[in-house]
């Protein structure tokens, strides 16, 4: 994919030039509401596991080295660089212990994902790493895994019923969207028209979108369009091309993940848009390279670490198979990367 670098733009009226804004002497009711909403969501998400254990760095080994495990792996979109990194990391960890990882890619098709899970069960897998294409739609596959006594560790995106899972690990997705919204409010204090490209069937993207919307609530932002980009670059580019023809004066676009943001960037570049702040979620090498270039419309990304998510999922799985107690949830930290701090994370790989 060739994405032309955006021309350096002149700051939009109502948006700052990136310098820190002077803090208002009093906190507005809207800001207080947003902060309270974020705090409540963080409490609900249990920002720390019950035991306080950081599974991403646990380095769990199986108790019986002679035991051979066959693991199944599925994610919503195997072409997404985020999931490519997760699969690669999991495979390296599993194979280092002499075990096997069988991966399938449903390409965002939950019906195909169910069929692929059925096939994995027929191959007598011992356990399953699950990232659903649809939170509700995947439930029939979870029923089959349960009937086959296959333990499931969920990662990155929750299924609709967590009781099917041994445990779940994933980013604090609400916060990943919230920090993007906070940044937009700081840089565009007068508000303005914006576009939101979400994906309602993906719980992780829904949480990010909710976080973003809560952060900008009460700050004079007007959502002129909100559409499902399915977390895919090509889909997002097509949708953004159409939307920007009707709303070429938007001051910002929020994408539920980095491929979505990069699709919006390609559309904005093609349309000659110069004054628009585009946000994504992931902190991918591609998005960081855009920010590091110094002349891109990409403003920031709510960063997460696919490496840490993969490490956490594998360590949880081996802990469970070893007979150890595991918590229901192991969250992984999220934070904002912008052009101001991207040099601290590098652009060659994931953080």
UniProtKB/TrEMBL annotation:
- Name all Periplasmic binding protein domain ranges: 72-325
The UniProt keyword set, sorted, is: Signal
MF terms from GO for this chain are:
carbohydrate binding
Q: What is its main location?
A: other
Where does it reside?
A: Cell envelope
- Assigned GO CC terms: cell envelope
Annotated Pfam families: Peripla_BP_4 (PF13407)
> Mind telling me which Gene3D superfamilies this protein's record contains?
3.40.50.2300
Tell me the protein family, please.
Answer: Belongs to the bacterial solute-binding protein 2 family.
In Swiss-Prot or TrEMBL terms, this protein is called: LacI family transcriptional regulator
């Amino acid at each position: 994919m060739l994405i032309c670098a955006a021309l350096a733009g002149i700051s939009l009226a109502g948006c700052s030039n990136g310098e820190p804004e002077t803090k208002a002497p009093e906190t507005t009711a809207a800001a207080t509401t947003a902060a309270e909403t974020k705090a409540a969501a963080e409490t609900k998400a249990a920002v720390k596991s019950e035991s306080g254990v950081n599974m991403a760095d646990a380095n769990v080994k199986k108790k019986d080295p002679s035991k051979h495990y066959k693991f199944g792996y599925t994610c919503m979109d195997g072409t997404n660089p985020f999931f490519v990194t997760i699969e690669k990391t999991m495979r390296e960890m599993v194979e280092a212990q002499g075990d096997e990882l069988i991966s399938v890619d449903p390409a965002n098709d939950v019906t195909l994902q169910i069929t692929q899970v059925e096939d994995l069960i027929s191959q007598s897998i011992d356990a399953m790493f699950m990232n659903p294409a649809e939170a509700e739609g995947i439930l029939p596959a979870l029923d089959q895994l349960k009937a086959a006594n296959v333990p499931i560790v969920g990662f990155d995106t929750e299924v609709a019923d967590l009781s099917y899972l041994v445990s779940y690990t994933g980013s604090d997705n609400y916060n990943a969207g919230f920090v993007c919204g906070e940044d937009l409010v700081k840089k565009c204090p007068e508000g303005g028209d914006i576009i939101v490209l979400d994906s309602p069937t993906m719980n992780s993207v829904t949480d990010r979108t909710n976080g973003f919307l809560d952060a900008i609530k009460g700050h004079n932002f007007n959502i002129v369009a909100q559409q499902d980009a399915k977390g895919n670059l090509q889909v997002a580019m097509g949708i953004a091309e159409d939307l920007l023809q009707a709303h070429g004066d938007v001051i910002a676009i929020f994408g539920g993940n980095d491929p979505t943001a990069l699709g919006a960037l390609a559309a904005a570049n093609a349309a000659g848009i110069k004054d628009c702040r585009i946000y994504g979620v992931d902190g991918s090498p591609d998005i960081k390279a855009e920010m590091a270039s110094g002349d891109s419309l990409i403003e920031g990304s709510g960063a997460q670490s696919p490496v840490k998510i993969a490490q956490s999922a594998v360590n949880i799985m081996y802990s469970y198979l070893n007979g150890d107690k595991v918590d229901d949830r192991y969250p992984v930290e999220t934070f904002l990367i912008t052009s101001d701090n991207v040099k601290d994370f590098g652009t060659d790989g994931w953080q």
